[in-house]
Amino acid sequence: MYPFGSGSGMPSYPPTSTNHQEPPRAPFGAGWVPPMQQNSPYPPSQPSPQMYQHHHHHQHQPHQQQHYPGAPAPYPPMSAPYPTANPSYPPYPSSNPYPSQFAPPLHQQQQQQPVSNSPYPTDRGYTPAMTAGYDGGYGYGNGQGHGQGQGHGHGQGQGYGQGHGHGHGHGQGYGNGQGQAHRSLPAHREGTPTVVPAQGFDPVKDAHALRKAMKGFGTDEDALIEIICRRTNEQRQEFQRQYKTHFGKDLIEDIKSETSGNFEKLLVGLLRPIVDFYCAELNDAMAGLGTDEEVLIEILCTLSNMEIYTIKNQYLRLYGAHLESELKSETSGNFKRLLTSLCTAARDESGRVDPNAAKNDARELLKAGELRVGTDESMFNMILCQRNYQQLKMIFQEYENMTGHSLEKAIKKEFSGDVMEGLIAIYRCVTNKAEYFASRLHKSMAGIGTNDTQLIRVIITRSEIDMTDIKVAFERLYGKSLKSWIKGDTSGHYKHALYALVGEQRSS
Fold first, then answer.
1. How far does Cα 369 stand from its chain's mean position?
2. What average pLDDT score do residues 142-170 get?
């Protein structure tokens, strides 16, 4: 849930199956890049895994090697950065990602050409989450040899290969041989955002305009909305840095002194780096007496491995506590086990599907729930927290074919309380994530009063990922536009700021 938006947005991963060709997206949205080394909470610098091409046949072909060195930072280091467009993420390394015999000599490594769109620069001290199946783009072939040679060589893809008769190759491409190969597609936005990078962006100009809007008597709230709500999270971090450089003042502190109420809360949330915003929401949900389980569900049940891993590291840096330990101390029973499973960030995200395995898992869910007295919660937990989204869609369909009703109905029958809500959140995110977040927006405004914290959180976190799709789903589900609901539940500058974030024109 993505990584979180174009300035930061939840990844689905490159499917390697011909049955489900759904391209991956970047964590936290299309433009997110990890924090730079100076203030980085992340593990020490390790270069991204190299992918090499290796031939074993008598007829040698030239090596084609590719690696992911860091491109120069567009701006000087800052504490919380957020990206450029459409990165393509390398795969998570395992403890020994490639056999040692496939590593090229050092002098060959020095000749490799950089991939300019890599979001994991080696000079910024960032190490991706060590989880299996991350969307790095890899492929395999099941033909009898790949490549352009006469032997059992391998394709000229952006990766390495190895040939042993039936051989297989890994990389962002495949050979021109007779074998059938699968490949991953470039990273893309999960949906259609309503906040996109401003054209002709000038952080210095924005910093001066913001200072002018708050200097002297009164505040020009419309200017604040026009700048803050129409920039991506990345761009907001850039003009905040320029603001502090030029005026020696902290922009967030100035915003707090010049605004109030929900309008202040919304602007401050927008100005925070998106990962810090998620961490603050989780911390607030567990602080004090009681726990807001809905916040924990909304965040942990909807985000990708990379996003959860990044949040865990930043949470430790900001609050000096491990997120998993905090979750265990604030929850109990099956709900605690569900959140612990999600917090490990170990879901398979390969995108591969297996129809036979889907049937078996559907049968196991049926036996663990409706076909027995009581419920085997661990089976639901294992399957819904471990299988990739494409496989889960197939499992849900098989379950419906077997029983004549949806798995969601079975979950409501077999479970109750927070664990039921968590499992249903996973089910709905797999089947239609836009509808899930549309329901969250509706719940924040339905009935007496408005849950402004929830409304602000959903709009901030989804505006750079898929808010346009959420608006369409909202109107389809509830018969009225999201704008009309916002108009009925909010007012003043707060309302106009929300309009800007959801891509609506200002109205009186």
1. 31
2. 40
